[in-house]
Amino acid sequence: MAHVLMAVTGADTIELTDGSAHPTGFWAEELVELHRGLTAAGHDVTIATPGGVRPPVDPGSLSGDDADELRAYLAGIDDLLAHPRPLGEVADGEYDAIVLPGGHGPMVDLAVDPDLGRLLVDAVDRDAVVGVLCHGPAGLLSAVRADGSFAFAGRRIAVFTDDEELEGGLGTATPYLVASRLAERGAVIAPAAPWSVEVVRDGTLVSGQNPPSSIATAQRLVEVLAER
């Protein structure tokens, strides 16, 4: 059994380019499928947020045909969501893996959170498993070393693509494009066709492109953890 830290956004709004506030949070399908896949495989999952605030669910992620099932699963883990661990209390090396579900929320807080950055740099240095999904890779932007270098430079990453953002995300109102920002920092973006299921593994880094990739990302993480 692995001990997995699921770092989840605590942001409930994101400021758009016109200055307006857009509701956000974590994307329900992504958190649910990652949590379900990992726990079904016998792994222990701890949810953590910046400051230990309750992670908000993006209301837009509960509008599909699967909304009732997602709400039911979230209700079943409500105690975990209501009492997340503060990221600042997590020690380096404490968890076997760090997993970041998406939603636009991570662009707001996880991307600049120093505690998450510290934990991710430590994870890279000890070759621990890191899993990211959709907009979750925005959290990787926090992983900057003391010398200013990006800890995930040169790593292949699947992420919600610029085309997906412009076609079906926040469009031109998005404050920044996560894939482009990661590429600017030196990550190697490995995009597939928009809205297709895509999971990329680069060593112990596992990344999924979008919500349809949620189940496949969880499955790949389980496979990688089984090798440890």
Automatic annotation (TrEMBL):
Keywords from the named record: Glutamine amidotransferase, Lyase, Stress response
Pfam families listed in its UniProt record: DJ-1_PfpI
Keyword Magnesium applies: no
Superkingdom to which the source organism belongs: Bacteria
Lyase is among the record's keywords: yes
InterPro entries with a match to the protein in the record: Class_I_gatase-like (IPR029062), DJ-1/PfpI (IPR002818), Prot/Nucl_acid_deglycase (IPR050325)
Domain DJ-1/PfpI, first and last residues per copy: 29-223
Family indicated by similarity: Belongs to the peptidase C56 family. HSP31-like subfamily.
Protein name (record): Type 1 glutamine amidotransferase domain-containing protein
